[in-house]
Specification:
Length: 194
Amino acid sequence: MKVAITEKDALIVVDVQVDFLPGGALAVPGGEKVISPLNAYSKLFSESGAPVYFTRDWHPRNHLSFKENGGLWPAHCVADMPGALFPQNLALPADNKFIIAKGVKREFDAYSGFQDTPLLALLQERGIRRVFIGGLATEYCVKSTVEGALNLGFATFLLVDAIQGIELNPGDMEQAIKQMLFGGAVAITLTDIG
Ligand code: VGL
Ligand code: ZN
């Protein structure tokens, strides 16, 4: 399949942050592998005048998703701490890029980039119709963001060469991909763009 990118398309890079990379507080195995394809997508979208949205998990220190507060996860992506930053080798385009913080309130977790964020309004403002989604982690924030986009009526493409999962239970990642495609997402890779 060939997909030509226009200004009505958007790239959404989900939670590529130090804590989700090897050595981080909630490392996604192989998470570093998404960076180089995502940099290539960012460049292609930028060159086509399409905006790029970077979501980031941005939790308060006492967030309820942390184990010490009864949640499922080790403390991760605490706002302004080194683990919450984008890795240095993640390329952010000079223009037309937006950073979307999520999970910022203690009482609520937000796996989807659309949950309590300005993302939908920003996309609507530009008349965006199609979104292309990659990043971390496949079966949590990528899946929720893809489902959010589908529910909101966007044509939604899953960048299968730019996602990695946590795989808390074996098979989680594959099952998540199946569910996203069953829900209407279209799987593409870099070679489909152009
Ligand atoms: C995520 C677990 C906890 C993610 C965020 O970005 O997929 N997963 N917080
Ligand atoms: Zn989180």
